Amino acid sequence: MSVVAYAPASTANVSVGFDVLGAALAPLDGTLLGDRVFVGETEGDFNLVNTGPFAHKLPDDFTQNIVYDCYVAYGKALAKKGLRLKPLVMTLEKNLPVGSGLGSSATSIVAAFVALNAFHDEAMSEHELTLLMGELEGQISGSVHYDNVAPCHLGGMQLVLDEAGVVSQSLPVFDDWYWVVCYPGIAVSTSAARAILPAQYRRQDCLAYGRRLAGFVHASHTGQEKVAAAMLKDVIAEPYRAQLIPGFNEVREHAATMGALATGISGSGPTVFCVMKDLHQAEKLKTWLAEHFIQNQDGFCHICKLDAQGARVTGTEL
């Protein structure tokens, strides 16, 4: 028996929802913008192999890989249920760059747990898996944040609650929005992006944050597209993180001239996203970003819709 799971990239914060809002991404051209994990039977010892375009960015020692940590954590979770890990080997196909602002660690974690769970006949519930995913994500970022793992796992746009036994809930989305997502090819570490934020915020910024987040959630539920788009403004992170991303202000200005409803930083950056209504204009913006924002051969740009499926088993072979 063998199984392969895919987990999509995600954009966290979505400008208006720092640490509480995230959305899974699906390129229109069918590109798998996310990581895949293979789990297969073995008669020998556990082994983990890395493949994919960004495998060279991962540690040579597989015990230092977050996917190995997922394997260990899943085994402990099974033991609490009186179950045992089957003898297995794993392969991580690393398709997302590290430090891209697209939930790179979350895609590896989510794909690993979904594959391990499928291999063990769905021994864990979806809720139990999400909690494990958040725990492992917290090992990397220093504290538990579900704004990448929740949409990556469950799909769509997720509002993180983490109260009353509920990790997150889906928000209605505007199906005719195109999300132009561009990674310039440079890395911004999550820790560096967090370190640049102030320790305290002014009352007026806190009020603006709460008002806009509430407004976006309400507008999403009531189908008020114009209001929802107007709420996509960031007073918490973007004013400070923009300086870490060369050309960000130019992207915002140019996207606005092309009709973008909103432009923001994906997660902690350096990837940016622009929300467009017109596909032709989205394609023109993608071409402009490729010429003016991408800095090296590692960069890429995709026109996406939101991925409603989230993580899923895609087959038995990579």
Automatic annotation (TrEMBL):
Gene Ontology MF, one: homoserine kinase activity
A GO BP annotation: threonine biosynthetic process
EC number(s) per entry: 2.7.1.39
GO cellular component: cytoplasm
Residues binding ATP: 97-107
Full protein name: Homoserine kinase
Top-level taxon in the UniProt lineage: Bacteria
Organism for this UniProt entry: Zobellella denitrificans
Family that this chain belongs to: Belongs to the GHMP kinase family. Homoserine kinase subfamily.
Pathway linked to the protein: Amino-acid biosynthesis; L-threonine biosynthesis; L-threonine from L-aspartate: step 4/5
Sorted UniProt keywords: Amino-acid biosynthesis, ATP-binding, Cytoplasm, Kinase, Nucleotide-binding, Threonine biosynthesis, Transferase
